[in-house]
Amino acid sequence: MLNRLHVAADAIVVTIAYLLACVFQFVVLPNPIVPLTWWDYIKFLAYIIPVYLALYAIFHLYQPKRVMGRRLEIANIVKANLVGLALHVAILYILRYEHFSRQILFAWFPIINTAGMVLERILVRCALRYARRSGFNQKHILVVGYSRAAEGFITRVWANPQWGYKIQGILDDTLEKGACYKTIPVIGTLNDLEPLLAGNQLDEIVITLSLNEYSKLERIVTVCEKSGVHTKFVPDYNNIIPTKPYTEDLLGMPVVHIRHVPLLGLGNRLMKRTMDIVGSLLAIILFSPVMLVTAVLIKATSKGPLIYCQERVGLHNRPFKMYKFRSMEVQKPQDEKSKWTTPGDPRVTKVGKVIRKTSIDELPQLFNVLKGEMSLVGPRPERPFFVEKFKEEIPRYMIKHQVRPGITGWAQVNGYRGDTSIRKRIDCDLYYIENWTLGFDFKILVLTVFKGFINKNAY
């Protein structure tokens, strides 16, 4: 019912947006040139409305809003409207409507329609949240099994009443009846599941068995499916598998990959490598005056080599020499291998303080990118001494070496540079590795320009 109302509301918004675009173009603007009649424009609604509604469905805009993020929904609206615009242009070209107003096509309608869709969904969300907080439009849920997964699920639902989930209770064989977690009581054992389902008062079952109870899973699923109640499974090993697991079908057997790495695919690797080569060449040309001035200042103010080569660990755990403009006095190899730079470090030269703060010292790494040892975007490479140290202390640390290291990365644009949390840095690196797209790389490069060059944690 809600979906039908939503589709109808979207159809109304699309219609109003299109008519307003026509009014702006032919009524509000002075002296419009109207080579086509109003009817020529109005009859396009017969095409526009069904096409845009289909696109909104394709881009998941009619999925339940209980847990869909607002940003994701807005992003999907923009994507759907851009695809709609492309289809609109194609149709006009095929039908040879050369006199169709370009202002309506590229400005008024896309802007008004996107704004209208966003406003409509904000209003729908507000209405749904108010209704759910008031006790309406609720989904009654039973949690089966007490575990870390159960605690995580209940905590999230308990903290977000606007989702409209009402947890009736927990069934578990290890806890006493009446015990509570976040005000949710244990109302029985696993054997009580079938009688409870017979009452037909539940909308969903969430199975959250602990690892040592997975032997009971098949029986519980059988009971749930026999009742016809929608059933979900939240695994107790969710800290091991990624949020969006990558699965494959092995002749009817589902195989879940512990880590989904898009860059293991040949096509993705080729796209990223092409971007690295083109991007690094353009950056070398663009920053060549800066690098020339930096080279002169380094040679004029301190003794030692211009370029500092430091061993780092890269793709597939292979060591390589990473290039940087020298920003410190020449030191013993053993000291530079195992020491972090600290605030007020006397080893840093006067020029070094400036180029480290502004990340100019990293520019020679563009040549590492050309050689294929690094990428423009990726996890920052670390020295072998610290790799050996961190791989024992930080779970999943070595996963970062499944892709090429980068000059900048998701961790760096989120502020995790220099002397900051290694664990949070690794979390960002893993998110990047699992969610890589070419668009994500461009986003990181843009963010680097605006907030990644100046490093407050550089000493």
TrEMBL record:
<dbReference type="Pfam" id="PF02397">
    <property type="entry name" value="Bac_transf"/>
</dbReference>
<keyword id="KW-1133">Transmembrane helix</keyword>
<dbReference type="InterPro" id="IPR017473">
    <property type="entry name" value="Undecaprenyl-P_gluc_Ptfrase"/>
</dbReference>
<keyword id="KW-0812">Transmembrane</keyword>
<dbReference type="GO" id="GO:0016780">
    <property type="term" value="F:phosphotransferase activity, for other substituted phosphate groups"/>
</dbReference>
<dbReference type="InterPro" id="IPR017475">
    <property type="entry name" value="EPS_sugar_tfrase"/>
</dbReference>
<feature type="transmembrane region" description="Helical">
    <location>
        <begin position="7"/>
        <end position="29"/>
    </location>
</feature>
<keyword id="KW-0472">Membrane</keyword>
<dbReference type="GO" id="GO:0016020">
    <property type="term" value="C:membrane"/>
</dbReference>
<comment type="similarity">
    <text>Belongs to the bacterial sugar transferase family.</text>
</comment>
<feature type="transmembrane region" description="Helical">
    <location>
        <begin position="74"/>
        <end position="95"/>
    </location>
</feature>
<dbReference type="Pfam" id="PF13727">
    <property type="entry name" value="CoA_binding_3"/>
</dbReference>
<feature type="transmembrane region" description="Helical">
    <location>
        <begin position="107"/>
        <end position="124"/>
    </location>
</feature>
<protein>
    <submittedName>
        <fullName>Undecaprenyl-phosphate glucose phosphotransferase</fullName>
    </submittedName>
</protein>
<keyword id="KW-0808">Transferase</keyword>
<feature type="domain" description="Bacterial sugar transferase">
    <location>
        <begin position="272"/>
        <end position="451"/>
    </location>
</feature>
<feature type="transmembrane region" description="Helical">
    <location>
        <begin position="277"/>
        <end position="298"/>
    </location>
</feature>
<feature type="transmembrane region" description="Helical">
    <location>
        <begin position="41"/>
        <end position="62"/>
    </location>
</feature>
<dbReference type="InterPro" id="IPR003362">
    <property type="entry name" value="Bact_transf"/>
</dbReference>
